[in-house]
Thioredoxin superfamily protein (Centaurea solstitialis), 160 residues
Amino acid sequence: MEEQSFFDKMMVNLRSTCKYYTGHPKDLGPSKVIHFTSEREFVHLLHQGHPVVVAFTIKCNYTKHLDKVLEEAAAEFYPQIKFMRVECPKYIGFCMTRQKKDYPFIEMFHSPEQASNQGKAVDPNVTKYAVKVLPYNYDVSAYGFREFFKRHNVRSSNHE
């Protein structure tokens, strides 16, 4: 068996350690992107207290690129930030509630806080939450997500 050259060893090391190396796909392990299946699941995810980045998508060429970016960002920011993908043709009702006309688009749902009942008689089994929704308008890349989280003071790792 032939021994690896210095250059080959260096490239293997670079691929395994550098977050920003883009020459070859990274081994991200199992997908951390959650595929939307129901509003109940989405609400349950919000109740866990982590910010949730949601990509509202349709079938188009750009979606393939977006899927790769979501996979990379989800692997980098897991478990502090959750990433979810909604296929809007399958879940028209959920997507229409966002009242957007241009697809795909990304929004971050953040800071679920228990809403006050304001003196009204409500069912004790119902818990209301106020969720801040931020439209994502940065570069669609792991770097763009990192800058977006910094801008909105979202803790994206244990090191911050």
